[in-house]
Amino acid sequence: MNKAFTKEDEGPQADRLDDLPQSPHPNYVTPAGLAALQQRLRDRHADLSALPRDNLDAKVPRAMAERDIRFLEGRINRAIVVDPAAQDTKVIAFGACVTVVDEDDVETDWHIVGEDEADPAAHRIAPFSPLARALLGARVGDVVEWAKPGGTVDLEVTAIRYFT
Known about the structure:
Blueprint: E1 27-29, H1 31-50, H2 59-77, E2 79-81, E3 96-101, E4 107-112, E5 124-125, H3 130-135, E6 143-148, E7 151-162
Helix pairs in contact: 1-2
C-alpha cells in the first residue's frame, strides 16, 4: 500500500504522551511532601476515572492524566523521606527553616524542601538550588556566599529551625 494512504499517527503510541522528565537529583521529600505527592496521584486517578473511555474528546485529557500518573508514580517510587525532626538542629540540612540577614540587614526565612514542594516565591527552595547549596552545612553565625546571576550576596545565618 502506498504510504500516502496510511495514518502514521494512529497506532499503539497515538494514545500515549511522552513521559515527563524526572529530575536527575535524588528525590528527597519531607513527610508532608510525600503526602502531597500521594494526594496529587489520587487526584489524577480520580480525574482519569471521570473521563469517558470511548469519547474522542476525552482522548487528549485521558493521555495527559495517564502521563501525569506515570510521572507521580515515578516521583513517589524514588522518594527518600527525610524527617526534619530527626535532623541536627545546629546545622542546616534538608527540611530546615533558615533565617538569614543580607548585607542590607534584610531578614528572610527560607525553607529547604523537596523539589515537588519548592516555591521560591514562597521562600521554599529545593536542596539543589544555588541558595540551598550555599546554606547546607552552615550553622548559626556563619556567613555564606549566595551566587546569584546579578552577583554574589553574603548572608548571615541567624536561626535554624525544623518543623515536623
